[in-house]
Amino acid sequence: MNRHTFEETVKCELTMTTSARNGIEKITKDEHAFFAMQKSFYVHIEKRPENQQGSQAFSFFFDPEENVKLKDLLDGRVPVLECIVKNDGFLATGFHVRGKREPVATNRRLRATMKFKLGKSSGISLPIDFATLLRELPIAEERSEYVKKRIGGWEGYLRIMEKNADVEDIHARVKSVSLSEDFRQASIRIEGLPGKAWRTLIGFSAKFASMTYDLGNVINADKKTNRIDVELKNNAIQSARKTGLLGKDFESIVFSNFAELSQVRRLRRGFKDLQDGLAANANLEKVLFEERPVVKITNRREPLEFETSLNEFQQEAVNGAMNANDLYVIQGPPGTGKTTVISEICNQAVKAGLRTLVASQANLAVDNALGRLLNNQDIRILRYGRTESIEEEGRKFIEENVAEHWRTQTLEAMETQLKQHSQLESTLLTEEEALQQKSTVLLEQRSKLLEQQKQWTEDNEKLRTIEQEMKEVQLKKQELQLAVEKNITEKKSSEHKLEETIHEIKRLENLLTGISTANRSELESERTQLKERIELLKTSQSLAEMVAQVDKLQTSIDDAIARSESYQSALTKLTTIGKLNDLKDLLDQVEFVPPPELDHKMTELIRQIDRIQEVGGEESFTAWSDTVARVDKAIITLTKILEEHQFHNRIRIPKGFRNRHSLQSIQETVSRVGRYLVQPSVKKTLSTTSFSVESYDCLENLTKAVGLLHDRKNFISAFLLEAQSTTSLFEDIKKKITDVFNENLSTLTAKQKGLQSQFDQVNGQLSEVQHLSEETSSPEVIAKVLSELEVSHESISKTIQEILETENTLKVTEKNLENAHEQRETIEDSIQSSSNQASEQSERMNVLDSMLTEKLMLEETLTQSLLNDPAPLLTEIAQAEKELEQQLEIVTKQLANVPAIQSVQKTWHQMLTDASPYDLDEIRKLYVKHANVIGTTCVASARKEFVEEYPVFDLVIIDEVSKATPPELLLPMLKGKKIILVGDHHQLPPLVGQETMEEFLEEMPDDEQKKDMERLLKESLFERLFRTLPKQNKTMLGIQYRMHERIMKSITPFYNENGYELICGLPDSDAARAHHLETNLIRSDDHLLWIDQPNTPDFYEAKPKGGTSRYNESELSTIRNMIQDLDQATEKAIEQGKLPVNTKKQVGVISFYGEQVKRINQLIQEELRTDHLTFRTGSVDKFQGMEMDIIIVSFVRNHGEASGEIGFAKDYRRLNVALSRAKELLIIVGSSSMFINKPKSKTTRGMYQKLYDEISSQSGIRTLNESVT
User: Fold this and answer.
1) CATH 3.40.50.300 for domain 1045-1263
2) Architecture of domain 440-516+813-869
3) Parallel, antiparallel, or unpaired for β 356-360 and 327-331?
4) CB burial class (10 A; 0-12, 13-18, 19+) of residue 1018?
5) How far apart are CA 746 and CA 752, in angstroms?
6) 172: helix, coil or strand?
7) What distances in angstroms separate CA 883 from CA 440, 869, 879, 880, 887, one per listed residue?
8) Contact status, residue 1170 vs residue 1125, Cβ threshold 8 Å
9) Is-contact 1115 1197, C-beta < 8 A?
10) Rounded to the nearest 10 degrees, how much is the dihedral formed by the CA atoms of 818, 821, 826, 827?
């Protein structure tokens, strides 16, 4: 039932609060004793909302069944540990014990095996997978509230049921009792029963006033004859056999509706179980309430071997149901073989080793489904429920009958086998001889084929060799062809290169004759002299700039000297500074900006000073030290008192302190403790060591005072450490500043030396330039001479560069000419080689072509010989020999075992024949224990004994889902790990009691529950699931076998939608559903008729006096005539040999209105006498799920009111049920004008127009005076 199980043992740290510790101490000595009881504990963990501090909370439920020692200690009660997550473990905040019935395993809890480690942290962390599962758990309270809110919409059903059930016991006098031949039914004539009580009596339990057990349930009540029919229970049957239910003990009878009230209680318990997370499928609440439930999709399907013959739609349904994970929905239109599909799913489930529950709202549907499983010996059917309610076919599988049924079935099978044993040995000998002859023939065939196989293998090997050789020749030919093509290409390329090379040689020779060189060394010497003169003239022009540079360097040197002296002075003062403000002033004087690290430390120092001043004020270190001594003295005094009274073990010394305090407040605390101790009452209490409430309270106060004083002492220690830390930090900052100052001083000294060196160099250059300027003329003359010299220098440099380029060109040209001659020789050699190679390649190509032609001829010959491969025949023979060997082995073993089998079977037959009641009871126990298909009704699945015996099923199949209310469906759904719903949302919603949902909704007050009920009536749970589930989780059975194809066409518009289509599965409808009847209105080939009534006052509907239902006398008259004609037509068909002798046609007469049904019953029972018809009547709603040969539907509604109201007939689902009950012939009696033209709803008019058109297309419209004969 658990959503998750964590398989590994989880080790976790657990810290206890006082509350949790006190809870544990109520059942054991302390927490250590509790957790030492077992090495590990089996728990179910429930997630709870976060607490006020935002910590995630969990409840650990200790399983009393798995934790054996806890079970013994607590007598099966459930201990619960409340925890919150703390670091990597848990903090226990509470502990309590719940009752024995407290559910432990739910689908909202995580099952785990835990090892709890108490005390200090040991570094153990929760496994990641385990922590993930905890995080993914739903918050149980939230899910419970969600379910409670959503399930409130179903309360309307229970209100209706409670209204029906809230009836006082009814008493009556017994006049006479008559019993059926099998004593299972009693007809009792009574008197003194109130008139209104007759209407509600059906379904009540009956009990003679003097009896201690129920007689049974009322199945029929006839006010006119004062007779009730009761289906007897087992105890009543036994009493009836002995007493005949006659005598003084049977003169008074009581009718009670207690069973209905019990049913309501079961339904409410189902609500509670879902709310508490007790569904076997954790996804159930989402399936029930979410608009589009998320289900796990399985695309891979395991292939199935079907036990029965199924059509493609039925196979799809079985495959889908077996491969689905959570839920599968099967829509089964009328006659599509829903029961066949259910039985096949049961077969497949048994093969898979699964236990299956088959449930339905009605017993008949359950028994029909189980009835298809009788031939499978692996299926052990168990039918659960009230015996009197179970159909005859299902009664053999109730618990008290299964042993006898199994014995009877087994004896019959064994008797059949024993009769066959006399012929078995000769049959086996004949079979053995035939098998040996077959083996000899196969051996000869295999010998011949092996010889063929040997030759075939040799030829195949030759062919492979030839093919390989051909591939090699082809490859060589391809390589040679490529080489030829490459040689031709290379030869052409070489000839083209030769032409280009000859042309290049001529060009280079012409180029060499035109190149000449000049004297380069003289020009270079002249250029050097010009350059030196230009440099000197340029220097003389920069005299002003050099003077400015010298002055700038002198200024920089003076600044460096001044800053060095400033740092020297600051270093001297730094050693004597004792305050932070003085330090800041000094840094400002030298314009020092602290680096980030030093700035951070200074900021931290300021914060520490502020904190110390905030608490310590102006108090001295001595004052704080004295206070510590006072606190220590007070602690020692209190501890000594607690030791004298044996109370010191409850002292809890804190590790740190909670808040910061002033010196004055701490001193006041010590004084307050002192004043408390000198109080007379305290001194008196402490003067004795005897226990009392006053002494306990006093010592508890002293214990708290010790903890409080330790808290203050811890604070003072921390405060003094902080003060010392501040002093150390200040000294560290001064040291850092000193280091930085020294470093800066070193940098300035080095910088000063560098500037002095640069100054000396520039100053020397300035002296030379000043000397040159004194020898030369004015600046204008210098500039003119400099310009002329630069032009001359540039011209000489250009000439020298041209000479260098000419020399390089000459060298390159000579080298290129030499290379060109060498290349010419190489190319000429290559052309000659290519010519020789081409001749050789042509000869090799001719040889390869000859070889290839020869091998092609040989390949063709071998291929023809290999067409007849004997390998497949050998494989077939080997398989046949293997199968033959297996058959022969089986036959041989059977021959050897025949005497032993006969002996065992005779012994077993005798044992079963002579089985004692004790033996049968043991068989019953084994059968029930191993039953794998259990059938019951939805409500019965919630009975206490059934829940205890079968809490969970692997598979739950619910049939006729549309006929059950959501609360009824919930009960079996709670039990299923996987749920399969079978129904048809195009048929009617469930009846509640004897009335339709619409009738109850008309009487309900306009409130939220009524709105919920209307929504459920508009779209049922089944319909919503079929609409919203993915296609992998649903299907529709699309082939119907019940009705003639023409009748089926009246309902196909309801099913041909969303890609689905309803088709007829009868190979020949006319033959399979021939009724052979002919009357004035019916032909033998008619299957769908409408006997049309005029929409005139003579044919209008009516209401009974004081009633709300309706009836129609005109339609009753038509039905009377129709029944008489059908009876006569059946008799005639029998006489003509078209129908077997003693045939009785099954006729169902149904209507939308209960009053019309009541009058139809009177008509059939009191007026008509038919020899060849059997009848069943009822409202359309009650007829759902039934089928008859012939159905007559009375529409009733016919009036001239402007509203055009047609009541319940406007629901397409009701019309669908009415039209789909007939197998051979469907007859509608009603006014077409009323239903096609009068309703205000366009949809309703269209629905009946389509029906009318379909019947008209079949020539099935009849008027009252019409005749077709």
Assistant:
1) yes
2) Orthogonal Bundle (1.10)
3) unpaired
4) exposed
5) 10
6) strand
7) 14, 23, 6, 5, 6
8) no
9) no
10) 130
Q: Is the dihedral of CA 765, 770, 773, 774 positive or negative?
A: negative
Q: Which spans in 513-579 are helix H?
A: 521-541, 543-574
Record the tokens describing residue 299, joined without a space. Answer: 């695309």
Opening angle at CA 1025, ends 1024 and 1026, nearest 5: 90
> What digits encode the pLDDT tens for the residues 130-146?
999 999 999 999 999 98
Helix (H) or strand (E) holding 977: strand 976-983
Strand, coil or helix: 286: helix
Cβ–Cβ under 8 Å, residues 923 and 946: no
Q: Report residue 933 as tokens.
A: 């298909």
Q: Tell whether the model's pLDDT for residue 962 goes beyond 70.
A: yes
List pLDDT tens digits, range 495-534: 777 777 777 777 666 766 655 555 556 767 766 776 666 6
**Model pLDDT, residue 621:** 65
Residue given tokens 């099954």 in the structure block:
1146
Q: β-strand 1188-1194 against 1039-1040: which pairing, if any?
A: unpaired
Work out the widest C-alpha separation in the chain, in whole angstroms.
Answer: 169
Q: What is the spatial distance between Cα 298 and Cα 324, in angstroms, rounded to a whole number?
A: 6
Beta bridge partners of 170: 255
Element (H or E) spanning 358, and its range? strand 356-360
What span, in angstroms and rounded, lies between the C-alpha atoms of 58 and 10?
15
Residue 853: the pLDDT is 77
> Do the Cβ atoms of 1012 and 156 come closer than 8 Å?
yes
Domain boundaries, the chain: 5-137, 163-264, 286-380+930-993+1021-1034, 440-516+813-869, 1045-1263
List the alpha helices (DSSP H) in 678-692.
Answer: 680-686
Q: What CA–CA distance (Å, rounded) separates 81 from 78?
A: 10
Q: How many CB atoms lie under 10 A from the CB of residue 389?
A: 18
Same fold, 286-380+930-993+1021-1034 and 1045-1263: yes
**For the chain, give me the number of helices (H) and strands (E)?**
38, 27
Which one-letter amino acid corresponds to residue 890? I
Cα–chain center distance at 576: 78
- The mean predicted confidence, pLDDT, of the chain is 82
How many Å apart are CA 265 and CA 732, to the nearest integer?
Answer: 82
Map tokens 């692996």 to a residue: 378
- How many CB atoms neighbour CB 434 within 10 A? 13
| Helix/strand/coil for 938 | coil
In degrees rounded to 5, what are phi and psi of residue 547? -60, -45
Q: Residues 721-745, buried b or exposed e (16+ Cβ, 10 A)?
A: eebeebeeebeebeebbeeebeebb
Distance of CA 426 to the CA centre of its chain: 60
Nearest to 799 by CA among 526, 484, 990, 560: 526
591: left (phi over 0), alpha (psi -120 to 50) or beta: left
For residue 220, give both structure tokens: 């029929």
560: region left, alpha or beta (phi > 0 left; psi from -120 to 50 alpha)? alpha
What does each C-alpha distance from 102 to 42, 99, 846, 850 come to in angstroms? Answer: 16, 6, 100, 97
Pairing of strands 356-360, 953-959: parallel
Q: Which pair of structure tokens corresponds to residue 628?
A: 């510590």
Q: What burial letters (b/e) apply to 1047-1061, b meaning 16+ CB within 10 Å?
A: bbbbbbbbbeeeeee
Cα distance between residue 43 and residue 114, in whole Å? 7
Please state, as a whole number, how many other Cβ atoms lie within 10 Å of the Cβ of residue 1173: 21
Give domain 163-264's CATH architecture: Beta Barrel (2.40)
As a whole number of angstroms, the distance between CA 853 and CA 849 comes to 6
- When pLDDT is averaged across residues 548-574 and rounded to a whole number, the result is 73
Q: For residues 855 and 469, is the Cβ–Cβ distance under 8 A?
A: yes
- 286-380+930-993+1021-1034 sits in which CATH class? alpha beta
Unique residue bearing structure tokens 């083209």:
496
Say which range, 547-556, 608-617, 654-663, 777-786, has the weakest mean pLDDT. Answer: 777-786
